[in-house]
Amino acid sequence: MEEIILKYDKDENICLLNYFNNIIIKDDTKGIFKFDNMSLTVKWDNIEKEDIFDLYDNNESILKSYRHTINIIHPEWTDKCIIKDDCIYRLSDKDEYGYHIFDKNILIIDWIKWDKETFLKINNIYYKEIYLVHPDWEGVCLIDSSIIYRKYSEDEKGKYIISDNKIIVSWEKWDEETFNMIDSKFYFYKNNINNKYEE
After folding, report:
1. Mean per-residue pLDDT, 92-117
2. Do β-strands 129-133 and 185-189 pair in parallel, antiparallel, or remain unpaired?
């Protein structure tokens, strides 16, 4: 194993790298690492966000600039976003940045150039749009901090809550409905848990 120094703001930690299986060890914490050009990316066990460290003075034994990354899928782009303190910016376009708030499964970004947007976390990816499948209809829905609405029928909307892998929607025009997530889509659920939705 090789020793490496990771700098977290003012703190420095000695970590061990195992190049055979790409395991990194910091104290009692393990993770997976990879080198990419002039940076080191670490995905620690039981921590959702990745850490990225920039190489310092071309010396791979000393790294700096501790950052977190998350994956976001937006209707107009897909990117890793870097979190630094209360700021967030796109990895591929650092001119697109703003301020973020995390609230359980919800991420709210107040972009400097764009309007405020809300993203829903599904399997550690944050989505601006989600796909609902109902016995009477199916299609893309958009979310904000408390409201969900059909993308092409914006008058069909309601309040929602997230519970595990379910979305519970209290429609303005209809009764409350529950949708279960299956393969990144949400299917109408009534009584039969073995079916995607009740016929």
Report:
1. 88
2. parallel
